[in-house]
Design goal:
The chain has 16 helices and 23 strands. By secondary structure, it is of the alpha+beta class. Bound molecules: adenosine-5'-triphosphate. The site of adenosine-5'-triphosphate has 16 residues, from β10, β13, β16 and α12.
Length: 478
């Protein structure tokens, strides 16, 4: 793990953003709990996503489907047969890897050494292997021919590549037998597909329209050593957009643009985001691109935009015997709609924000650590700090807090020197602090201190809410 990544993991724990799950028992790998600040950050992200998808588009409705679904769902979707990752073991260290990621890591190393031609050749080998009929064997052959060594032990002592299904299963009801096997959903999308007609009819939608959902998904990931980047239990924010066949590329382009703009609107610098085309299209897709962010662990996917054709609805029609067709009154034809999907990880978005926000600055010979969150995403918007715990200052501070609380998340803190309190607020990314002093009690003015510039301004208490709302709206990433 890079130094920067370690600092972010450590700050997340120290300040109550994210904890290892079941920590007192030694933890459970690749599962995490969100602490008091993390849960606020996460809620703000979901709210922004919901707002941009559901409230900003009249033709998109929300849904909250169950995690447990009829097992035939996963047969129809292809997950039972094909939701596999290729795994390979280092016999010396007993460490397990994803074969495709091992090759990707090798390509990255070649590029870092300036060996672009070689990297291009290996990349082509990876693409061919992923598309090969026996992809496990083909990936194994690439690892052998390129003599790719284990990143941890440095050995070249591999097992064969095997496919491993990522779905968690369990049994429903009191009797445990194979007929009662069900799965924890590995994606939220299928809950949307099986509710296609329910939402369309009750929402009185006509194609094109979308269904949006936020919820948990579970994947028994082979390699899960990167904090909340790859978890076994995580949350997705997905939207399936149903369109007339033949118009899917137009919708694909529209959603590509809208989704990139969403990440930018969260205060992510444009230089840290890029598009990545899939090396191998999933069995259901006719186009797929990812939005990648430059994490301290390298460029990695945050969101996928996929054109899924009519694969899913058609498959559910076949397996359920229920018609998934739509009669289009405008074209007077019946068809199974095509689907463009936007699928973003909630936890990965949170990780993006943590990585993007983390800054260290030299101030007067000291290092100031700050989290430069967008004010609309910051767990706490305003810290309210009475200078001392007497002379009417706490009372006025509480009054101000009451006035702001409805509009923004506030935090009252009267403990310790005010400079230390500012630093604490910087470290958790609070964009504004309001300091209440003697003058505030006498003249009704307060000091507003900005996290990013550390500048302070004196504002009449009566104008405070309007002032803050304006500053939040004007905030720009720097
Ligand atoms: P990857 O290639 O990283 O395994 P994927 O292509 O399988 O991801 P999708 O199935 O397209 O991912 O899922 C959509 C989004 O869900 C991803 O862009 C990511 O943000 C999130 N996601 C997927 N798997 C995980 C995971 N194990 N932990 C956290 N988020 C995940």
């Amino acid at each position: 793990m890079s130094d920067l990544f370690e600092k972010i993991v450590s700050l997340s724990k120290r300040r109550g953003f994210i904890f290892q799950s079941s920590e007192i028992y030694g933890g459970l790998s690749a599962t995490y709990d969100y602490g008091p600040l993390g849960v606020e950050l996460k809620r703000n992200v979901t709210q922004r996503w919901w707002n941009s998808m559901v409230y900003q588009h009249q033709n998109i409705s929300g849904l909250d489907a169950a995690i447990l679904m009829h097992p035939t769902t996963w047969k129809a979707s292809g997950h039972v047969d094909a939701f596999n990752d290729p795994l390979i073991d280092d016999k010396t260290s007993k460490m397990r890897y994803r074969a495709d990621q091992l090759i990707e890591g090798h390509i990255d190393r070649l590029r870092r050494k300036g060996k672009d031609e070689e990297a291009d050749r290996v990349y082509q080998g990876l693409v061919d292997a992923l598309n090969a009929e026996d992809s496990a064997k083909a990936l194994y052959d690439v690892i052998m021919s390129e003599e790719i060594r284990s990143p941890d032990s440095g050995m070249f002592d591999w097992t064969e590549v095997r496919h491993f299904n990522l779905m968690f299963d369990t049994t429903i009801g009191p009797v445990s037998n194979p007929d009662n096997k069900i799965y924890l959903r590995p994606e939220t999308a299928q809950g949307i597909f099986v509710n296609f007609h329910n939402v369309r009819e009750t929402g009185r939608h006509q194609v094109p329209f979308g269904i949006a959902q936020i919820g948990k998904a579970f994947r028994n990931e082979i390699v899960a050593r990167q904090f909340i980047f790859r978890m076994r239990e995580f949350e997705q924010m997905e939207m399936q957009y149903f369109v007339q066949p033949g118009t899917q590329m137009e919708a694909f382009e529209q959603w590509r643009e809208e989704r990139m703009n969403w990440h930018l609107s969260n205060g992510i610098r444009a230089s840290k985001l890029r598009w990545h085309e899939h090396e191998k299209l999933a069995h259901y897709a006719d186009a797929a691109q990812d939005i990648q962010y430059e994490f301290p662990i390298g460029w990695q996917e945050v969101e996928g935009i996929h054109s899924r054709t009519d694969f899913d609805l058609k498959a559910h029609q076949e397996h359920s015997g229920k018609k998934m067709e739509y009669f289009d009154p405008r074209s007077n034809e019946k068809y199974i709609p095509y689907v463009v999907e936007t699928s973003v990880g909630l936890d990965r978005t949170v990780l993006t924000l943590l990585c993007e926000a983390y800054r260290e600055e030299e101030v007067g010979g000291d290092t100031r650590t700050l989290m430069k969150f967008h004010p609309k995403l910051a767990p706490i918007t305003v810290g309210i700090l009475p200078l001392v715990k007497k002379d009417g200052m706490p009372e006025l501070a509480h009054k101000i807090e009451d006035r702001l609380k409805d509009q923004m998340n506030t935090f009252y803190d009267e403990k310790g020197a005010v400079g230390r309190r500012y630093r604490r607020m910087d470290e958790i990314g609070t964009p504004y602090c309001v300091t209440v002093d003697g003058e505030s009690v006498e003249e009704g003015t307060v000091t507003v201190r900005e996290r990013d510039t550390m500048q302070q301004e004196r504002i009449p208490v009566d104008n405070l809410l309007g002032y803050l709302v304006e500053r939040i709206a004007d905030w720009k990433v720097s």
